[in-house]
Structure formats: structure tokens, C-alpha cells
Amino acid sequence: MSWETVIGLEVHVQLSTNTKIFSSASTEFGNEQNSQANEIDLALPGTLPVLNKAALEYAIMFGLAIDAEINNESVFERKNYFYPDLPKGYQTTQLEKPIVGKGSVPITLSDGIIKNIGIHHAHLEEDAGKSLHSESHRDGYSLVDLNRAGTPLIEIVSEPDMRSAAEAVAFAKKLHSIVTAIGICDGDMSQGSMRFDVNISVRPAGFSEFGTRTETKNLNSFKFMEDAINLEVNRQIRVLEDGGKIMQETRLYNGVTKKSQSMRSKEEANDYRYFPCPDLLPVHVSKEFINNLRKDLPELPENKKNRYKEQYGLSEYDANGLTENFLFAKFFEDSMQLFNKPKLLANWILGDVSSKLNQANITLKESLISPKHLVELLKRIEDKTISNKIAKEVFEEIFEGKGNADSIIKEKGLSQISDAKFLEELVSKVISDNPNMVEDYIKTDEGKRKKKLGGFMGQVMQKSKGQANPQQASELLIKHLNDIID
Asked: In the sheet where 214-219 sits, what is the strand order?
């Protein structure tokens, strides 16, 4: 049987405010456990919450960025449940009247087709604390850090419009690019700034009715989300084809073991006993307030992508790669101020820079590489001080913080060799040492001889330790080999 996958996402985005959503406690990451939870975050008797205006503005900015409905009135409600890292015993959130209504986010599929993913709504709420579980099952204890309790979130709820893990990842990346571009979230998923809950079901191809869904919670990387979705889809199909039934449940995915497990069943909807928060008045926003935020909205990734294509002549692939990561876009634009070579810069940023960041598992913000470093290196390629091959070796040193291009080239003696006499002697030796290659070159049709030069060039570069000027060496090889033919 052929199966169709149905996916919807609930995305928790931590807002980059200095203080929490209802208190003056700091939201700074990495401080000593339980040092940033005050009496309001803990809902101690006699305390009253006050809405953080910046959190409200950030939520509206997101709605404007996706051209969604902005509700002039929104209401905060209490969602009651008991969990160790929720000290109040309830979460202040929005349900019936969220700040952001329906909208949509376009994604580009692998075949170039644009697909719109519906947004059901996005609401403001406070984050819970964090439970830290002991590694040993024998100990069996958990610790609670409440520093995160009260951190402002928007929860973005999509429609079930995605049909594959690839579409879900493309949608998640697009959301990440939007919230970082407009400056409402730092996007650091390793610190929990963006987390994904994935609702997954399968149904026979051609059916319109949805299958029973499961929810996999708290995924904090695009890779984990992709793997978790594929694993769960295969599990559901296997269960159904074996004659079983899918149980509605919440699941957890372990990115290290690449395994998932059931966390709790959800056979019936949980009774959270929602009711309007008695401590917070309904929020009213005027059209003027919304329009002022609209005017100040930064350039959006989609607009930036189109501008890169038109202004710099970049391909869809390059423009999309640069703009789906706010830090990459800024790095590119800062580099362009120093070196007006858009295609060359795009190639290096999306190639060598991105590759090294992935290997080191860090972001551009955490790396030692700067636009000035990269531009200095590329200028040494342009003026033929070094070859492209040597440049990659120099880049490794720059990335590790061992200096700039000029100092590394000088210290290691990596300057490209353009001395005509040296190259003449080197090319002559390579040709004399390889009579079989020469004979093969002579026998090859003239139109196909260019490919045969690769073997000779490889030896030239090897003997010169990659420092021979490749253009000069290639010209000399052709000249010497043609002289032999004549």
C-alpha cells in the first residue's frame, strides 16, 4: 500500500527580551541555576504580573512578517497542569484570543516549486523551567532549574500542510530565518531558543481523512527533527501494515541513540481547565501601534533573497543559502562592503566557511573568522599571491585563529611561484619523467587532449607543493607537449 505522511508543527520561539514576560527578572542564558527566578515567576502570594511590552511588540512583528492577522484584542489565560519545573502549577498563555491569527509561510521545495504552509495562529506565553535528570537509574533523582521560568515565548502553530520530513525542515528553517532576521530571537537551538513539537500521522494515499497522530516533543535541531520524523513515519507504517493501530501519544526522540520512545498516552484530550487570567487585563492594540511596527520591520529573508538575485546576480541556490541564515546574510553584506565579488564570496561562505562551522559544531557568531579575514584571503587569490588550493590551507589556519592571510602566507612560505625559469625546469622534468603519459597525450585526439593535462598538472603541483602558478604551468605544459608533437 502507498502511504501519505501528514505533518504539523508547534514551534516554541524564545523572544530576545532582556527581562521575562511578566517580571523584571533577567533572561540571560548560562547563569547559576535558580538565580533568575523571582517571586513573580514563582507566583508567590501577593505578587502581580505585568506584561512585557517588548514581548508583545515582538509577537506582532512576527505576525506582520508572515502577513498574518493581528488581533486588536488578545487575552491571557491560565493553563493548569502540574509538573516539577512549573512552580505556579499553571502556565500563563493564550488560547481563545491569541495575538496573531491566520497567516502563511512560503517554502521552496527541492524541485523549485513554492508551497505555502498555513499558520493557524501564534500566541504569547511563558516558558517553564528545566528538569535535569540524573544519568544513573539507581539514583533516580531530578533537579529543577527555574531560570528559564517566565521567559517569553511565541508558540507558532502550523496547519497540517507538510507531507515529508524535507518539507517540515524547509518550513522550520524558513521560520528560523524570519525570527532571526527581524531580531526577535537569537535562533540558538542549542540553548533552547527554538524548539519543535512535531505532530505526525500517515494515511493511505488518496484518502482525505487524517490518521491517528502522535506528537514528538522538544526537538532542538533540524537534523534531529528530520530523523525523528522519518523514524516515526516508518514506525507508523510498519504498525499499520502489520494489522495494528496507532495510539495517540506523546513521544520523545533521542538524537544520540537515534531511537524514540513513548512518553505518555493521549487517548483523551487533557483537561487543562483553561480560564482567563484574573491578574492580567485583555490586551488592546491600535492600528496605529501595529502600523508603526510595520514601518520599522527589517528586510525579510524572502525580500532579501530576491534582492540578492537582482542586485548581485546570484542564483536561487546561493541567494536562498545566504538568506536562510541571518548571520550568513550579515557576513556576506559586511564582506561585500570590502570586496565587491558576490559570487566568489557566496561560494566561500556557503562552502568552506559553512563546512568548517558544521565540523566545529559552532555558529558564525562563535567562530574566529570575520569578513575582513575572508576578504584578505580572497584578495591574495585574486592577485595570484596564492593558488585556490593553497588558499584552502590558509583558511584552515585563519579559522583556528592562527593569524590573518598575509601573516600565515609569509610565515609558511606559501606564496605562489611564478618564476618563469623555475617553472620551465619543473615542467620539463615532469614531461621527461613520464614518457608513457606523453605518448598517450600524443595519441589522443586534439579535441580531447585538454583532459589529459590533468595528470601532468597534478605532478607539477605535487612537486611544487601546490605553489606553482597553475595558469603559467598549464600554458608551459601545452607549449612543451605541442613542441614534441611538431
From this structure: 103-108, 114-126, 152-158, 3-14, 194-204, 214-219, 249-254, 259-265
Q: Are 53 and 173 in the same domain?
A: yes
Enclosing domain of residue 360:
299-412
Q: How far is CA 464 from CA 337, 407, 427, in A?
A: 35, 21, 10
Q: Report yes or no: 246 and 212 within 8 Å, Cβ to Cβ.
A: yes
Residue partners of 8: CB distance under 8 A and separation at least 6: 157, 158, 159, 160, 161, 162, 198, 199
Number of domains the chain contains:
3
Residues 338 and 481 in one domain: no
The C-alpha cell at 262 is 513513548
Rounded Cα gap, residues 211 and 6, in angstroms: 8
Does residue 294 lie within any of the structural domains? no
In terms of domains, do 222 and 309 share one? Answer: no
146 and 215 within one domain: yes
Pair 164, 227 in one domain = yes
In a domain, 127, yes or no: yes
Q: What is the pTM assigned to this prediction? A: 0.84
Is 206 in contact with 9 (CB distance < 8 Å)?
no
Residues 251, 398: one domain? no
pLDDT in tens, the chain (486 residues): 899 999 999 999 999 999 999 999 999 988 999 999 999 998 899 999 999 999 999 999 999 999 999 999 999 999 998 888 898 899 999 999 999 999 999 998 888 899 999 999 999 999 999 888 776 556 678 889 999 999 999 999 999 999 999 999 999 999 999 999 999 999 999 888 999 999 999 999 999 999 999 999 999 999 999 999 999 999 999 999 999 999 999 999 998 899 999 987 765 556 789 999 999 999 999 999 999 999 999 999 999 999 999 999 999 999 999 999 999 999 999 999 999 999 999 999 999 999 999 999 888 989 999 999 999 999 999 988 888 888 999 999 999 999 999 999 988 877 766 767 887 888 888 888 888 888 888 887 777 777 778 788 888 888 877 777 777 888 888 888 887 876
